[in-house]
Design goal:
Largest sheet: none
Order of helices and strands: HHHHHHHHHHHHHH
Length: about 300
């Protein structure tokens, strides 16, 4: 309830100058129309009309701004920030639109420009949101050190959405600090309210796959399977790990379980699985050939 009235009050404040200007324009149109029609209207009526137009305009603009407070993207993250028609709000909306249309580089440029040009006009919450999305852009572009710096800055500025600890852990792992990443992931697991808890085991498993440590990766994917956390992705990750470890039969079983469980992007997963399988088979053939050549020499 407090948040509702806070948003409504903010909408009233932002609507005041625009609503007053609109009322004045409507009043001038009314006066001009009366002159053209040669209508005789008393001063009291004109004053009443001015007040009525002012109240009407303020009400319309307040409701419009209040309704616009629900952002098209990530309304749970942006909340009541960047609501209105100011330059900073337009710049933010443009940057976010680019971000969700997968124009990440252009989005990053817009967020950086917003931070540089509108810093004095932004609230602390708005600065934190811009830092977060700047970090998100860097992460999607693969610049993990830059992303981590932005995420840490967002936390310092008061960004409190539960997605931040999860993404910070992911970037920490991508930067090569697996031990610190696991510690951060465990904090996410410890937060019973975090909707990202179900993704932790799979995320850690993927981190170890990227580090070419399939045994460690498999242990985390198995935890995901046991706890039924992101089960299709856990099956898929375990299939890849078993493949890298050379257990083709178990890998095939897990691969099929992932498809049956409706893993995300099954075509992409199948292509990736076959690519790893080809690499493993080539390695096996090479090892077999080398072993045969050594036996021949002996």
């Amino acid at each position: 309830m407090r948040k509702f009235f806070s948003r409504f009050a903010a909408a009233v404040v932002q609507a005041a100058p625009i609503g007053s200007l609109l009322a004045l324009i409507l009043f001038y149109i009314a006066v001009l129309s009366a002159e053209l029609l040669r209508a005789e209207i008393s001063v009291q009526v004109w004053l009443a009309a001015l007040v009525a137009l002012h109240v009407f305009s303020l009400a319309v603009m307040t409701l419009y701004i209040f309704a616009a407070g629900t952002h098209k993207y990530d309304s749970d993250i942006v909340g009541s920030s960047f609501v209105g028609f100011s330059k900073k709000c337009r710049s933010f909306d443009r940057a976010l639109e680019l971000h969700f249309n997968h124009r990440v580089t252009a989005s990053l440029d817009e967020f950086k420009l917003l931070a540089e040009e509108q810093s004095d006009r932004m609230t602390t919450d708005e600065k934190a949101i811009v830092s977060f999305y700047t970090g998100r852009c860097y992460e999607q572009l693969g610049f993990y050190p830059n992303a981590l710096i932005c995420y840490e800055r967002a936390a310092e500025q008061g960004f409190r959405n539960c997605i931040l600890p999860f993404l910070t852990a992911r970037c920490t792992g991508a930067n090569g600090d697996a031990e610190q990443a696991v510690a951060l992931y465990e904090k996410v697991l410890g937060d019973s309210d975090s909707p990202f808890r179900n993704h932790v085991y799979v995320d850690i498993g993927r981190m170890y796959l990227d580090r070419n440590e399939p045994s460690e990766a498999l242990s985390w994917f198995n935890k995901g399977i046991e706890n039924r956390h992101s089960l299709p992705e856990a099956y898929g990750g375990a299939a890849i790990a078993q493949l890298m470890l050379g257990d083709l039969e178990e890998s095939d079983r897990l691969y099929r379980a992932a498809l049956v469980s409706h893993i995300k992007d099954p075509n992409g997963f199948t292509e990736y699985y076959k690519r790893i399988l080809s690499s493993v088979m080539l390695k096996k053939d090479t090892q077999t050939a080398l072993k045969w050549m050594n036996n021949e020499k002996n």
